């Protein structure tokens, strides 16, 4: 086995104290911030990439590794893969009924993260604006795949309690990477896990590039930049009241 990595050490801490919340939360935070290497079913086409999925008795599993050397140690031939942050990988897999196998067979402390755990992480970790905005240098206009706005609008309209504003934009990061971002205001915390899964489904069905979801306060200082540069998604108007036919009117009194 290769030398232990920070994720190995955190997974070992979880195994040593499974009831302790602190190492679990530290593991997820480190996972979100780490660069991971996801095995793909085929070479990516543009910004579209599909994970290699293992069909097992325990369910469908995507495979990722925290170093290139570990990925190479798992496969026996050159294989397509995608390097991306754990935060973006979580957003990619959430809502697809996929588990994530991390460092399987190449670490003394591998992890198998079930679909419900990825859904939780999508709401808890990918939806915090400070994580993404802290590394961002610019808010710019997004590149929008065909059908994405309509798909997002349909899913946002189903959010319990509704939402305030929704802006699709691009964040440029210091390291030269960029990501499409959906910034939302007015979404209740209890509605966020289900919303993360619904938005991941919209991404999958439209074939759009990966995007992050940010939940902003109405007074967030970055919100004006999203309004200037982003594309807004309006809540659907309430259905019009049906017109009454003359026969439905009350009778006239003489």
Brief account:
With 254 residues, the protein is an alpha+beta fold. The protein is 34% helix and 22% strand.
Give the end-to-end Cα distance, rounded to a whole number of Å: 95 Å
Binned, the helix content reads 25-40%
Bulk shape: globular
What structural class results from the helix and strand content?
alpha+beta
What can be said about the biggest beta sheet? 6 strands, mixed
Average pLDDT value?
Answer: 83
What is the ordering of alpha helices and beta strands? HHEEEHEHEEHHEHEEHEHE
CATH superfamily of the largest domain: Uncharacterised protein PF11572, DUF3234
CATH topology of the largest domain: Trna Endonuclease, Chain: A, domain 1
Helix segment count?
A: 9
Low-confidence stretches: none
Classified by CATH, the class of the largest domain is Alpha Beta
State the domain count: 2
Cα Rg: 22 Å
């Amino acid at each position: 086995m290769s030398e232990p990595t920070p994720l190995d050490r955190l997974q070992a801490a979880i195994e040593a104290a499974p009831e302790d919340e602190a190492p679990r939360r530290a593991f997820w935070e480190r996972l979100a911030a780490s660069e991971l290497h996801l095995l793909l079913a085929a070479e990516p086409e543009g910004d579209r990439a599909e994970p290699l999925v293992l069909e097992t008795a325990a369910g469908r599993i995507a495979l990722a590794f925290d170093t290139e050397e570990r990925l190479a140690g798992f496969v026996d031939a050159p294989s397509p893969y995608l390097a991306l942050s754990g935060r973006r990988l979580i957003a990619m897999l959430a809502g697809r009924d996929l588990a994530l196998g991390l460092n399987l067979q190449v670490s003394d402390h591998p992890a198998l993260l079930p679909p419900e755990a990825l859904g939780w992480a999508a709401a808890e970790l990918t939806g915090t604006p400070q994580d993404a905005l802290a590394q961002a240098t610019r808010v710019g206009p997004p590149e929008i795949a065909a059908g994405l706005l309509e798909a997002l609008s349909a899913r946002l309209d189903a959010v319990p309690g509704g939402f305030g504003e929704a802006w699709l934009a691009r964040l440029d990061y210091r390291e030269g990477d960029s990501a499409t971002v959906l910034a939302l205001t007015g979404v209740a915390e209890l509605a966020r896990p289900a919303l993360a899964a619904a938005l991941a489904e919209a991404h999958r069905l439209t074939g759009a590039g990966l995007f992050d979801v940010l939940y902003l306060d109405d007074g967030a200082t970055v919100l004006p930049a999203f309004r200037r540069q982003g594309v807004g998604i309006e809540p659907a108007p309430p259905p019009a009241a049906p017109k009454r036919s003359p026969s439905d009117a009350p009778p006239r009194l003489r």
